Amino acid sequence: MDEVPDAGCAAGLAEAGTASGAADARHWPLAERPGFLARRMHQIHVSLFAERCAAFRVTPLQYSLLSLLRDLGEADQTTLASAVALDRTTTTGALKRLAARGLVSRTTSPLDRRAQVCRLTDEGAALHGAMEPAARAAHAATVEALTPAEQDTLTRLLRRVIAGHEHRRGQPDIL
What we know:
This protein is mainly α. It has helices at 7-19, 22-26, 34-53, 60-72, 77-83, 88-100, 122-142, 148-163, and strands spanning 74-76, 104-108, 116-120. The chain has a 3-stranded antiparallel beta sheet with strand order 1-3-2. Strand 2 and strand 3 form a beta hairpin.
């Protein structure tokens, strides 16, 4: 999410310079850039999550995987990687770390020997249940400056932005 200009960005800035004046193209404060704001919000959330969930020794990605497995019952690593919008290698690493702690079981799929099927262990389900209030508190703290209606609006808008870019899934630079 760093602000690295590309050809499309340069074209957009050129259009902005002609459509709304050259001053607009030259001055674009960080605080008005959606990418910068999204990165800052992510940093804030990760910090709040770390503060509230440190005792559980689980990262936000690992918590997402535990949550998915709680909801799905079982899933292969490719399905989980897609659901958390990360590459399979990163997701597999996180699952291996969870398995090493006894929180997730990974077994070879009977349908496809190349696939690993993952499930929450009883210990994983217990940990997820124990940490859920702290994780919810981190999410709530992330948006506490907003009213409940604004929080709902923000979530709805973020989902809409993400849905608007679903066609980019699978490209090398965006998962």
